[in-house]
Amino acid sequence: MKHVMNTYSRLPVALVRGSGCRVWDEKGGSYLDMVAGIAVCNLGHAHPRVAEALKEQADKMFHCSNLYRIPLQDDVARMISENSFESRVFFCNSGAEANEGAIKLVRRYCHEHSRKGPGIITFTGSFHGRTLATLSATGQEKVKKGFAPLPEGFKTVEFGDMDALRGAVDDSIGAIMIEPVQGEGGVRIPPKGYLKNIREFCDEHGLLLVLDEVQTGMGRTGELFGYLHEGIQPDIMTLAKGLGNGFPVGAVAARPDVAEVFGPGSHASTFGGNPLAMAAASATLTIMIEQDIPGMCRETGAYLTQGLKEMMSLHSGIREIRSRGLMIGIQCDTDISSIPRDALEKGILLNVVQGSVLRLVPPLIITRRECDEAVEKIDKLLKEKGV
Ligand SMILES: Cc1ncc(COP(=O)(O)O)c(C=O)c1O
Questions:
Q1: Distance from first CA to last CA of the chain, Å, rounded?
Q2: Is there a catalytic annotation at residue 154?
Q3: CATH class of the region 15-33+292-384
Q4: Would you state the CATH architecture of domain 48-290?
Q5: How far apart are the CA of 97 and the centre of ligand 1, in A?
Q6: pTM score
Q7: pLDDT tens figures, 344-380
């Protein structure tokens, strides 16, 4: 990889093929995939219907520009809106780009509608992307190091602390941006009622609520979108990761009266919502809804969590297991960053965040038998590591 920039500490394996929850390397070795491309391939690898939709579209047209009407965009936007909240959707290519779009929307909305803002409150431990504005929004100092000057207009508040939030809001603030469950931050689930309190607080103070559903969206938590557990609605929601089941596509959905502050020329993306990306997203959403994949995720997530909790009694070094659907964090007392590498020898793909949290985000179609296999392998790995 001499000619590729050295921005990842890559594991010594090249994955060349996948099917469902399994992937294969170039030498034919197989692995149970508990990473799913980091919460992306929610329907499993090479899903035949998504692959077929892509092949069919590839034979017709890859790309044509947003200078022209792209009928598939309307289908995907309708599916998002009908299954979340009444919204208008902008399409882009990644999570960071979706959050950038949301940040621009907040700023434009505040300038046009409100005396407040356009500052945005985000939270300690949050992750919103690697572009300059989303980096600035991210509540983790380590990712910002060396990139000053960062765009202004963000204030970080302690995650889970309603009083801290109340104290931080002044007339410079126009919105609150939060992940329903923090993923990169270590699978941190907010205290019960927290998101509802934030929603009410936003309503009282005329603030917009932006939900970053890049990781929690598309069935991951056992609902199509993470906020659906909370009985609230966002004003703006961002999506990416699972939306194309591996094909790059992101989206910003906003309440119609918020969305209307964007007009022709306010925002754009050459590739955003191109026919190929829309074919993938349309097939993915259709399957997700038709087959109630979020329901399946709820059930399997509970089963896997149960298995892990039983295993936990054998490991004094596991402090806590946090889970919502198939977004699971095994919080250990010590650094376990070497586990993903050791896991390769056991035929399983694992991911660690924040040094001490084993994050499990497998395809949502994982079977109970595969869950048992994962628990058995994780148990062995943690034992070998003395956890
Ligand atoms: C919650 C959240 N927001 C934004 C992003 C950034 O997405 P992308 O890497 O597609 O730019 C991520 C990526 O991990 C994420 O988890």
A1: 34
A2: no
A3: alpha beta
A4: 3-Layer(aba) Sandwich (3.40)
A5: 9
A6: 0.98
A7: 999 999 999 999 999 999 999 999 999 999 999 999 9
